[in-house]
Amino acid sequence: MAKGNIKRKVIAGGLTVCFLLGTLIVFGQSLQTITDKKDILIGEQIKLKVKASFKPELFRIGNWLIIPDSILHFEIVEKSKIDTVEFKDNSKIVEQTITLTSFDSGRWVFPRLGVNFDSLKDDTTLNVFTDSFYVNVSYSPADTTDQLRDIKPIIKVSVADYFWYYVLGGGILLLLAIFLLYGYFKKKKQLQTAMPVSGLSPFDEAMEELKKLSQFNLNEATEIKMFHIQLSDVFRNYLSRKQNSNLLSETTGDLLINLKSKNIQQEDISKLATALRCTDAVKFAKYLPSSSESDDCCNKVKETIVLNERQTKNNKQ
User: What fold, for 25-138?
Assistant: First the structure.
């Protein structure tokens, strides 16, 4: 009796194997479903891997994993990219991992997912489905020990104190302001001390210096340049002493604005502007005026100094 049962089981097993082999030969494809867990807590995730194996000379995939827009009791969290692997025996495996979860407690069935294999021998399409499976979704197990739990101690919260950072930042800003002010007043003092000191009055000194300009040879380029440099310095030094302010570094435009504020007539300012701009052209643009033009510049500077002196006396009276 036992021997008969064993014989029948061997025959049945052989028939089953033959059937499976026949299926692989006829269809040349298979679909496998793998899950990492089937019992989860609410919100916990499940990894579902679907793997299809087929012969590319017999089939091609028409539609891969037809997933409905919504699945009752389940939510699709993520779908990985589709990976394809080819082997030397001319077989191909396509697989994809789907991450899903559930927020409904209970025992639910995750439905089958379809894959369409199109035959390359004819126009037929083979629809193959993954296995459906149950998922048990539950809450965290309740604590049945009935043990009392100690109250957690008060956690000390560290409060950042930025007081010293503010003090340091304020100190740095104060030092920077002191440094800038020191540089400003030092430079101002240097400019003031750089002014030439003479025992003559500003007017007399200017007239003496203008007389010395007649010693230059206005037919040589080097002496023409020195003539106009000293002519500009004579006027700037005169105006600086008259106003008790260092104007040696002022631009020509600043000097003209300064004279305009002293009620000098516009016509006289225009004459001076012509002379000073000529000296600027000689100093900075290598312009070489004629001797008569240089003499004219000297006369215009002299006239302006005399006019300014007269205006100053009138204002005092």
Answer: Immunoglobulin-like (2.60.40)
